[in-house]
Amino acid sequence: MRVAHRPSPTPDRAADGTIRVASVPAGHVYIRHLAPVGRALRDVVRLKDPVPSGASPAEQSRWWPPVMLDPAWIERAHDSFDVFHVQFGFDAFAPADLRRAVETLREHGKPLVHTAHDLRNPHHRTRDLHDAQLDVLIPAADAVITLTPGAAAEIERRWSREAIVLPHPHVVDFETMGSLPVTRRAPAERGGEFRVGLHVKSLRSCMDPLAMLPALVRAVSSIPGGVLQIDGHTDVLDPGGARYDVELASALRAAPSCVDVRIHDFFSDAELVDYLASLDLSVLPYRFGTHSGWLEACRDVGTPVAAPTCGYYADQGPVHSFTMDEDRLDEDELVDAVLAAYRQTPPPAEIVARRRAQRDQIAAAHAELYADLVEARCASA
Questions:
Q1: How many CB atoms lie within 10 A of CB 236?
Q2: Phi, psi angles (nearest 5°) of residue 157
Q3: Which residue among 29, 73, 188, 230 has its CA within the 20 to 30 Å range from the CA of 366?
Q4: Quick check: pTM over 0.85?
């Protein structure tokens, strides 16, 4: 990859040549892991997430609609950044509001980058609103990034835009990855327990664990030591929960002894890593979606994943696929996916080294893209 050229400073650019990125957001783990680890790229800095009006700095870790997408913020702060990069959080804004933000960026000559993580929002039962939001961002962006070739092909079909494909970086930090067991024995060879995990979280709109339950029970029942561990948050599985799902909770209470149901609140980051590392297989219960950070966290800890054919999960990395989307579920394929994971020989454990090298490559690609956009803007000014 060629070294990015640094354009000459302009009145609204940092005097030291630093490229200042207004990242929407900045604090998300994905964005934090776009910074390099192997070498310094001192010419790229990301602005901190602004604290919403009326919120205290102590509340900054709480999720808020991103302040940076407010046209008034762009108007006030345009001298403080060189590139505007939208990743997450725009689902809190109406398409008309996004259009005004785009127009304000154009008025001040600021390049717009959009990373298309989700081509179908996993929190929305219907796709209309998210499609309308993408219809603003993707055509307007000076550059579009996505995570997989499949998503790039969909972007080409739907918007006639060529997207840059940059893979999802690691989710788990390197120190934690390095502290995990270096190798796993093949489950079929080691004897004992084979634990399949299905985490329903707070039951996103895209999830349908109830439909999968019979096939998963059938699969683990056929495996010596097979256990199906189902985790869910208190709000959906406890009778006093705000979003209590009677049908799912009743089905889990009636499940056979091979099903281990665990009800709890949100895992901390450390608890999530421990949970994923304790599994022999993690199953994604999605009817629709695009990409998965959960899948990437599983890769970080060496846990195999069974993923549905909707979206582009198989493009992110090796998975055990089964047919599942909004219209159908092939239960036999789901059983086969679990059994394939049981028979699988684990790959060599070089996770940390591979993830470090990948992160540096991703960081360099972003730095080069930003520099090219700023250089083009300077040339046209």
A1: 19
A2: -65, -45
A3: 73
A4: yes
Q: 62 in helix, strand or coil?
A: coil
Residue 199 sits in the same domain as residue 330: yes
d(C-alpha 6, C-alpha 140), whole Å: 24
Cβ pair 98, 136 in contact under 8 A: yes
Same domain as 364, residue 223? no
Per-residue CA distances from 296 to 195, 276, 304 (Å): 19, 11, 10
Helix residue ranges per DSSP H, the chain: 29-32, 71-77, 95-107, 128-140, 149-159, 174-179, 187-190, 209-221, 234-237, 246-253, 269-278, 293-301, 313-316, 331-343, 351-380
> Which pLDDT value is given to residue 41?
57
Q: What's the pLDDT tens digit per position in 48-86? A: 999 887 665 555 555 568 999 999 999 999 999 999 999
| Distance in angstroms (rounded) separating the CA atoms of residues 275 and 134 | 34
Compute the distance between CA of residue 377 and CA of residue 64 in angstroms, rounded to an integer: 31
In this predicted model, what pLDDT tens digit does every residue of 1-53 receive, in sequence order?
333 333 333 445 555 678 999 999 999 999 999 999 966 556 899 999 998 87
Give me the CATH number covering residue 310.
3.40.50.2000
pLDDT in tens, 162-189: 999 999 999 999 999 998 875 565 665 6
Query: Per the domain annotation, does 3 fall within a domain?
Result: no
Do 135 and 193 reside in the same domain of the chain? no
In a domain, residue 176? The reply is no
Residue at 294 is within a domain: yes
- Tell me what percent of the residues of the chain surpass a pLDDT of 90: 82
Q: Identify the domain containing residue 222 by its residue range.
A: 183-343
In the chain, the number of structural domains is: 2
Instruction: Residue 200: name the closest of 167, 168, 233 by CA.
Output: 233
